[in-house]
Design goal:
about 260 residues; alpha/beta; Rossmann fold; 2 domains; six-stranded parallel sheet; four-stranded parallel sheet; 12 helices; about 15% strand
């Protein structure tokens, strides 16, 4: 099984891309809903939470780990790779910034995310490593998450808020935008309508799923770890009232996850 975890339920958009890209592979998902948001927590706290989740997913049969959360990817991925040396671990940041750097034409790239992710500057540093001449413009969009979790995707209020947040991105004439939060892909069409057709929108979850698929194709030892099947499992650390809203929006079905206390 492929183990995917997030600080909450936004990671279901990552599950969506993996199911679309790898429809014959089993997924086990864990959302740390009792301890979200990670963006306001210390690196040590996030490392400890991520470590517990990885151990849980491995105990349930996961053979590889996908860190859907941008904050956990930034602050815990290196630690997890050191501590779980025999487990393939994938993080969501690198595939997205590689894609943005590859497709930009005018070298002006926007990054939007939660305040914690934007404050970490992890995407900015990663992009500048790839291309020191890139111009990076970042923007925290804290209202996007609650709007998505309430299912307010197509409301006129949501469109107005998106326009308000992204006006500066238009002024900077960016030509690619990284969605650095797992909730934001559900607003992709509305974001595209605000920014216009000349701006390419990067959903890192999509590029991460492609990276995983390429690894399966090119590494026989890696691909041998997985048995195909469609019996997926979903776990949370507390039962959020809006899980069914998010599962409907992301996966087209309502899911009742199992609650597991890892603390």
């Amino acid at each position: 099984m492929i183990g995917i975890f997030d600080s909450g339920i936004g990671g279901l958009t990552v599950v969506k891309e993996f199911l679309r890209c790898l429809p014959d592979h089993r997924i086990i998902y864990f959302g740390d809903t009792a301890r979200l948001p990670y963006g306001t927590k210390s690196p040590k706290f996030i490392e400890n939470c991520s470590r517990q989740i990885v151990r849980f997913l491995l105990s349930k049969g996961a053979r590889a780990i996908v860190i859907a959360c941008h904050t956990a990817s930034a602050l815990a991925a290196d630690t997890l790779k050191r501590e779980f040396k025999n487990v393939p671990i994938f993080e969501i940041i690198t595939p997205g910034i590689k894609k943005a750097a590859r497709i930009t034409r005018n070298k002006k790239i926007g990054v939007i995310g939660t305040p914690g992710t934007i404050k970490s500057r992890v995407h900015e540093r990663g992009l500048l490593k790839i291309g020191p001449d890139l111009k990076i413009y970042t923007k925290a969009c804290p209202l996007f998450v609650p709007l998505v979790e309430e299912g307010w995707i197509h409301k006129k209020e949501t469109k107005s808020i998106i326009k308000n947040y992204l006006e500066t991105m238009k002024d900077k004439k960016i030509d690619s935008l990284v969605l650095a939060c797992t909730h934001y892909p559900l607003l992709k069409d509305e974001i595209a309508a605000v920014l216009g057709k000349k701006v390419s929108i990067v959903n890192p979850a999509y590029d991460l799923s492609l990276e995983f698929k390429e690894k399966l194709k090119g590494d026989r030892k890696f691909s041998s770890l997985f048995k195909k099947g469609k019996k997926h499992q979903f776990f949370v650390s507390d039962n959020p009232y809006n899980f069914q809203i998010m599962s409907s929006l992301s996966l087209g079905i309502k899911i009742n996850p199992k609650v597991v206390n890892l603390a």
